[in-house]
UniProtKB/TrEMBL annotation:
The keyword Ribonucleoprotein belongs to this UniProt entry's keyword annotation: no
This protein's name: HD/PDEase domain-containing protein
Domain of life: Bacteria
GO CC aspect terms: cytoplasm
Keywords, ordered alphabetically: Hydrolase
Native source species: candidate division WWE3 bacterium RIFCSPHIGHO2_01_FULL_48_15
Domain HD/PDEase: 30-155
Length: 190
């Protein structure tokens, strides 16, 4: 290896998101890892992008897919912080977000500097929710959460029903102009 260059192999070996369990405080029939969740967020992002393109809405699909893939990468350090705790107060949420901003560069530290900077920038874009790509990923994130809750409720786990209903209603009330173009094709009618 040339002097001064990094070996990036270590990054390929890090599968920590495959071991971070979501909803760790809830009884579950089917444990879901952050890695599994991120797969569905990326998959749902591709589907939403398809519907948007069919409606003539401009979206950078490759950028949206990258945001989907990195949107929860800080959880390789923090774990999945439970929603009721995270959203308990503005101060707690602000502290968690601040810690995430400080930690996220470390997640990509063993990648080439330009790629690490790109991934950090995309992660920050997701947290700011100002671009259509970040907003689409957020909708895909909600759909992934709803799908997980549906799966649990379907097999009788009533702990997930209120979460399902709350997040489905949240998507129904989303006001983004692009979402209004496609939501009837995505959400259930009843």
């Amino acid at each position: 290896m040339p002097k001064g260059s990094k070996n990036h192999f270590e990054h390929f070996l890090d599968r920590s998101l495959s071991h971070v369990i979501r909803f760790s405080g809830n009884p579950q029939h089917f444990h879901e890892t952050v890695g599994e969740h991120s797969f569905y967020v990326a998959y749902f992002t591709a589907i939403l992008s398809h519907f948007l393109k069919k409606k003539g809405v401009k979206i950078d699909e490759a950028k949206a897919m990258k945001i989907a893939l990195v949107h929860d990468m800080e959880e390789s350090f923090s774990g999945d912080i439970r929603g009721p705790f995270k959203h308990r107060s503005k101060e707690v949420l602000d502290a968690i977000r601040k810690a995430g901003r400080e930690i996220i560069p470390l997640v990509f530290d063993d990648l080439p500097a330009d790629l690490g900077k790109e991934f950090v920038s995309l992660w920050k874009e997701d947290t700011q929710q100002k671009t259509i790509e970040a907003q689409v990923v957020k909708a895909a994130d909600e759909l992934s959460l709803i799908a997980k809750c549906h799966e649990e409720a379907k097999v009788g786990n009533e702990f997930f029903r209120p979460i399902y209903e709350r997040h489905l209603e949240k998507l129904r009330e989303t006001k983004h102009p692009w979402w209004k173009e496609i939501k009837d094709q995505i959400l259930p009618t009843s």
